[in-house]
Amino acid sequence: MITYKYIGGGVTAPKGFRANGIHAGIRKNKLKKDLALIVSDVKCASAAVYTQNLVKGAPLIVTKKHLADGYAQAVICNSGNANTCNANGVEVAIEMSELVEKYAGISKNDVIVASTGVIGQPLDVTPIANGMESLVNGLSLDGGRDAAQAIMTTDTMLKEVCVEFELGGKTCRIGGIAKGSGMIHPNMATMLVFVTTDVSITPQMLQKVVSTDVVDSFNMISVDGDTSTNDMLCVMASGLAENAIIDTENDDYKAFAKAFNAVTVALCRKIAGDGEGATKLLECTVSGAETKDIARKVAKSVITSSLLKAAMFGADANWGRVLCAIGYSGQDIDVDKIDVSFKSSQGIISVCENGRGIDFSEEVAKKILLENEVIINVNLNSGSQKATAWGCDLTYEYVKINGDYRT
Description:
Blueprint: E1 4-6, E2 17-22, E3 35-50, H1 58-66, E4 71-81, H2 89-104, E5 111-118, H3 126-137, H4 144-150, E6 159-167, E7 170-179, E8 192-197, H5 203-213, E9 232-237, H6 251-273, E10 281-289, H7 292-304, H8 306-313, H9 320-327, E11 339-344, E12 347-353, E13 356-357, H10 362-369, E14 373-379, E15 385-392, H11 396-403
Parallel strand pairs: 4-5, 8-9, 10-14
Antiparallel strand pairs: 1-6, 2-3, 3-4, 3-9, 6-7, 7-8, 10-15, 11-12, 11-14, 12-13
């Protein structure tokens, strides 16, 4: 049985990684960093998953090509401009990787490129080129937080996490940073997530871990129902922990996958809780489902309901909106078996049993729903499968943020 613990740090906590983040001038606000770089001392086994949106940012096209051999050594990411739907977008993304080669000495073909921000605006590479020397010179073991800040857009909080565990007597770490606040309804991984680890693992096994994990982690987040054009999750594994290389689905593979999931779920919660304009994190847990797929789709349907999200903003125990969302989830469910309850640090209250309303205290329910983390428990009472999805409430502030996002 693997045991892991959360420790301080992010992408520079695993052995072999340094990072930095600066204000290069891509964004007008000089107080906000807009260019991040993560580098490894050695070439890393790497894996990634990308947005399923047919409109894709140019950096994803370049990154897919660079990761075709399963290896990478650096990540460069700018914020403030998504480099999407631009005539010269691919050329700019390639030039960003060439700048890493020039200033950091890492082959351009081993560079993961990412961008986030406004879609359809030309990205001038000049400020990136001008900032590269400072960016590279500032790379450090303490630079993970600066990198995390530099990838933020409308995020209100920095998102980083790290876990430590053992494989074969070797201390191993997995660290991650993420950005994401709006335009979040993934169908692959999520927003932008950069993960590092010092575990020794083959690219093939790493890709399997990532592709399997996102189904129950990042794919289960929704802030606003919009799938971004630039979503990407990438992982680099330096192997410097010197554990026996993971090249099959053995016990070490399972232990690594569990620790990896601890990182991704923690980032999921941070992203959902920091949804644009949000005042609270919503978690929907669905149990008693006949199949895992039914559990996932029901949980996601509940968490994406605008009416339910608005009710949670108002701390209104309107459980009918939960059943409504379950009803249009497209799943074959016996509505007469559904139980619903709301839970937070203030307690738990049942509001629906066997698909019917029951007497409950509106006063107690409101007290529970006023907390900044609320769990919506749904029991379908039809099987043994379960799933969890994460979202946030829908507030006036969300409209304000997105009403003038470009200006």
